[in-house]
Amino acid sequence: MVNLGSIECGCGGVKLYLPNPRPKFRCGCCCSDCLQRAYIGANGHPPKAVLERRAPIDLIYVDSFFLLPDKDTRAQLSVFRLNDPSGANITLRAECCGAVLCTENQAVHVPHSMAAFNNLEPTVVSDFFDVPEMPFHIFTADWPENFAKRLADRETDELGMAREQISNPASEMDNLHMVNLIRAFQVPPPSMSADFISFKDLREELPLEVVHDYFEDSRL
Ligand SMILES: [Zn+2]
Ligand SMILES: [Zn+2]
User: Which ligand is nearest to the CA of 15?
Assistant: First the structure.
């Protein structure tokens, strides 16, 4: 049996397999886009839940390649962007239950990497091996200040130390954590095959929707 990673939607209608089951990096993310995606994927949550969420999104960065999905699975997939039709993030969704499966940032992840979500069960279940430790959190500037502080306090209680918080990665690119993160994005897949398809090629034939103003609505 070949070892594979997988990403499955909450209803089980879509299960995608990844040829490389080992994530290349992991970090907690508090960016507004990740929070919006989490709540877009969790049908039934009110938009204001974006601002009430107390846990960062646990991102695992994986190779941007799937085993070729069958026709029925492909028919259940679509992609969306948040607010901006030319924005950098493009996200894969399961039409059956609306689960948000994974996302690729066209500015920084490509061509080798994309992000999957490690703590959004039961909405989406990501199954990978040797998931690395989470060394830090990024984009805490997008969070209310007291949330970031409470996160640090909680980690100090539970882990004996608070993970570093990089409030705005774009202005802290010299931070060693950021250097390691960006370097991880550039790691190519360990093997290639005609049976694999990249996120980029997969999404080419999928319907694209622009989802508007979710985060702004959440502030009302
Ligand atoms: Zn994020
Ligand atoms: Zn589903």
Answer: 2
Q: Give pTM, 2 decimals.
A: 0.94
- Give the distance (Å) from ligand 1 centre to CA of residue 79: 17
Three-state secondary structure call for residue 60: strand
pLDDT tens, position by position, 17-73: 999 999 999 999 999 889 889 888 987 777 777 778 889 999 999 999 999 999 999
CATH T-level assignment (fold) for domain 5-209: 2.170.150
Q: Is 107 in contact with 181 (CB distance < 8 Å)?
A: no
pLDDT digits (tens, 9 = 90+) for 19-33: 999 999 999 999 988
Considering every ligand atom, which ligand is closest to the CA of 16?
Answer: 2
The beta strand positions in 70-162, using DSSP E, are: 77-82, 89-94, 100-105, 113-117, 124-127, 136-138
Domain borders along the chain are 5-209
DSSP-assigned states of every residue in 160-191: SSPPEEES-GGG-TTSHHHHHHHHHHTPPPS-
Average pLDDT over residues 3-16: 97
**Number of alpha carbons in the 13 Å side-chain half-sphere of residue 83:** 10
